[in-house]
Amino acid sequence: MTPKQRQNFDRLLSPRHIAFIGGRDALIAIGEAKRRGFKGEYWPVNPRREKLGGIPCFTDIDALPEAPDAVFLAIPAPAAVAATRALRDMGAGGIACYTAGFKEAGPDGQKLEQDLLEAVGDMALIGPNCYGIINYLDDSALWPFAHGGSCPGYGAVIITQSGMLSSDISMSQRSLPFTHMVSAGNQAVLGIADFIDILCENPATKAIGLHIEGLSDIPKFEKAALKALAHETPIVALKTGKSEIGSALTYSHTGSLSGSKELYKALFERLGIISVTNPSQLIETLKYLCVVDRPTGKKIAGFTCSGGGATMLADYGEEIGLEFPSFDSSATKILEQHLPSIATVSNPLDYTTPIWGQPEFTEPVFRVALEHNDVQAAVLVQDYPAEGLDESKVFYQNDALAFATAAKSLGIPAAICATIPENFDKASREFLIAQGVAPMQGIEETLNAVSSAAWWRARCDQLRNNPFELMASAMPMEGTTQMNEAEGKALVQSFGVDIPKGAVTHIDGLTLVAEDIGYPVVLKMIGAGLEHKTEAGAVAVSLKSAAELKDAAKMMIRSVQEFDLDCLSDQFLVEAMADTPLAELIVAIRQDQQFGWVLAIGSGGVFVELIGDVKHLLLPTNAESIEAALHDLKIGKLLSGFRGAEPANFRSLSNQILTLCQKIQKSALHIAEIELNPLFVYRDSIMAVDVLGQKQKAS
Q1: CA distance 189 to 196
Q2: What is the DSSP secondary-structure string of 202-263?
Q3: Domain contains 496
Q4: Is pLDDT above 80 for 254?
Q5: Among 221, 326, 383, 688, which one is most buried in terms of CB atoms within 10 A?
Q6: pLDDT of residue 212
Q7: Cβ proximity of 460 and 229 under 8 Å
Q8: pLDDT tens digits for 18-55?
Q9: Beta strand spans in 305-365 (E)
Q10: What radius of gyration, in Å, describes the C-alpha atoms of the chain?
Q11: pLDDT band, residue 677 (cuts 50/70/90)
Q12: How many domains does the chain have?
């Protein structure tokens, strides 16, 4: 975004006047601006109507009193391009282009979108094919559909690639406070990264919620996300849609293991972005982040007036890694003095009905329980009665206020959650927000939000202490050529990775090579189509003599002939048998055409596709992230010294993998992919037992 575009975006965001260009859709947009409470000037533009929304129309753009700060544009695509050019020439600030029929409509639309780009100049343009933008802070709206939502002076920014989803979120009955709502559409000029970059600067923005279908510029998004993190503004992302981007290299295991879903997950983890799987979780997580401080850890205190609620808290909390620390004997004795005799001291704590709704009794219970336990967050379960059945509501409110008072006095982030999401009326939600308590809807949604907020805080600290180098743009690839195993091994050996002693030979030279190496040996046929040798019968191990070697070669030839005659080769690789490792890994480094360089680490050998134990990291990375990924793997337990076995040196292993990544990235050999599988792991060293690779074709 240019400085001039940034100035124009500010005009678009907080306009003095809005031009509404179009017919029915412009009329609706005028109504939505009024609904939002826009106090500036309304300038409808329509040559066929005298008025829109009771406001006299201008016949054309040239008739406007001056260049409008903001424009809602809703006319056919070819006319929209011409109008954009006219608005640029007169110095307008920006446009929310509701008009569809651009690149989403095929080749003709793509040409129109290119024309739109050439016409826009330094104006700020949202869309095309979008709903537009709502500014809840300054009460302006460029929006073609009924919208809801409110702002207490702070809240969440919502940025979506779906107009209807953004409208649905605005109407949700969950009391999420908003600062801005942006429907990004085709993102011809301004995209998700631009909106993050600008809106995270506003101190009223407590969190940013994203709905992402796809990202076209990953490095730009990374910079914007890191800027938000520097402003201590969490981002919560709902990623929808599946893509085949990144799976072009399917001949190796990693082509099937690192599709778009896995790489977006790696991107979000890298940048400290909270990932959610549905709109309800998006809203609840944002609400928690907007209303309360982020917990400093995952130890939590739970309170209910029902044994069932306590059990649900404990069960799901344990499932997602939250801790409900028990009370020690001293705290137990103090609590027993405040609780009815029928209550059992535990965490979560069912404080029982004899004291329910009596703050003179419940407030000391909440306070003592929080004060005498090592917790970083607190949750009270309350399902409020429905309207018309709410004679007891005052008792709920009494306990809610007692809980809020106790938590606030100790500086502990507090949430009250309904077991059943709809059992939380609007008045009660807004009352709690005013008390600084998050009104949460759904036990699982609540605990997920607490866990995610604590993870975000810890991830921020990690990124401050161990920052990454920024990602580079992906390099275009015109095609690839395959390396055979010997070439791949020679390459990784040049980068400092040990390989078994061996040599390539024809069948007549097998015994000479084996005698030079020393038995036992491994025999492999190498050639096109033999990337996965086990399936073709193209590998034999633990050959202890010349006779066994010759027999294995004859059997191998027959097996490969039966597998695929075109794969038959007269080249063999003879290698020394490697010592038994502590564990076998797969380590793959490849160029993805969307995400750039990607590292995949997982359980190697036969386990690659059997158990799918793989972690992905986007490059550049650091040793700390690689080590954390290794610990997260199922095979991490084996590497840690399972059942008394010798453990691997995780720091040494992580540094060796990092060094390999760095050398491959800096290589001038135009590598597209290198896969080491299996990579034998010893206490302080590694050995590549099999290597696949691809290079980019020379241009």
Answers
A1: 14
A2: STTEEEEEEEES--S-HHHHHHHHHHHHHTT--EEEEE-----TT-S--SSHHHHHS-HHHH
A3: no
A4: no
A5: 688
A6: 94
A7: yes
A8: 999 999 999 999 999 999 999 999 999 999 999 999 99
A9: 349-350
A10: 31
A11: very high
A12: 4
CA distance 228 to 205: 10
User: In 14-154, where does DSSP find H-type helix?
Assistant: 24-36, 77-90, 107-120
d(CA 285, CA 176): 10
Parent domain of 349: 292-465
Following DSSP, what letter does each residue of 597-643 receive, concatenated?
EEEEEEE-TTHHHHH--EEEEESS--HHHHHHHHHHSTTHHHHTTGG
| Tokens read off for 678 | 């299996």
315 contacts: CB under 8 Å, gap ≥ 6: none
Locate 85 and state its tokens: 């050019």
What are the structure tokens assigned to 43, written together? 């300038």
DSSP structure string for 122-184: T-EEE-SSS-EEEETTTTEEE-SS------SS-EEEEEES-HHHHHHHHT-TT---EEEEEE-
**How much of the chain exceeds pLDDT 70, in percent?**
97
pLDDT-based confidence at 3, cuts 50/70/90? Answer: very high
CATH of the domain at 679: 3.30.470.20
Judge whether residue 249 has pLDDT over 50: no
- Bridge partners for 263 per DSSP: none
Task: Check which CATH number belongs to the domain holding 569 and give it.
Answer: 3.30.1490.20
Same domain, 299 and 273: no
Q: What single letter denotes the amino acid at residue 149?
A: G
Least confident of 229-238, 257-266, 584-593, 624-633: 257-266
pLDDT bin (cut points 50, 70, 90) of residue 244 is low
Residue 680: both structure tokens together: 């034998």
Q: Is the pLDDT of residue 528 over 90?
A: no
Output b/e per residue, 154-166; b: 16+ Cβ within 10 A: bbbbbbbbbbebb
Work out the average pLDDT over 87-100: 97
Which pair of structure tokens corresponds to residue 10? 């500010």
Q: What is the pTM for the complete model shown?
A: 0.92
Domain-terminating residue out of 526, 549, 576? 576
Does residue 248 carry a pLDDT above 70?
no
Which of 576, 594, 618 is the last residue before a domain boundary? 576
386 plus 514 within the same structural domain: no
Does residue 247 surpass a pLDDT of 70? no
| Separation between Cα atoms, residue 93 and residue 9, nearest integer Å | 7
> Are 434 and 511 found together in one domain?
no
Q: Residue with structure tokens 């537009």?
A: 132
Q: Are residues 535 and 601 in the same domain?
A: no
Helix axes 359-371, 393-410, angle to 10 degrees: 30
Same domain, 278 and 300: no
475 assigned to some structural domain: no
Residues 273 and 303 in one domain: no
Specify if 479 maps to a domain: no
When the pLDDT of each residue in the chain is averaged and rounded to a whole number, the result is 93
Q: Residue 696: is its pLDDT beyond 90?
A: no
Shared domain check, 398 and 301: yes
Model pLDDT for residues 439-473, shown as the tens digit of each residue: 999 999 999 999 999 999 999 999 999 999 999 88
Closest residue by Cα to residue 273 from 196, 203, 379:
196
Are 533 and 391 in the same domain?
A: no
Strand partners, 596: 592
H helical segments located in 497-635: 510-517, 533-536, 546-563, 607-611, 623-632
User: And the tokens for 564?
Assistant: 């695929």
Query: Does the pLDDT of residue 252 top 70, yes or no?
Result: no
The reported pLDDT for the residue numbered 245 is 43
Within a domain: residue 484?
no
Residues present in the chain in total? 699
Number of Cβ within 10 Å of residue 214's Cβ equals 15
Q: What is the CATH number of the domain that holds 366?
A: 3.40.50.261
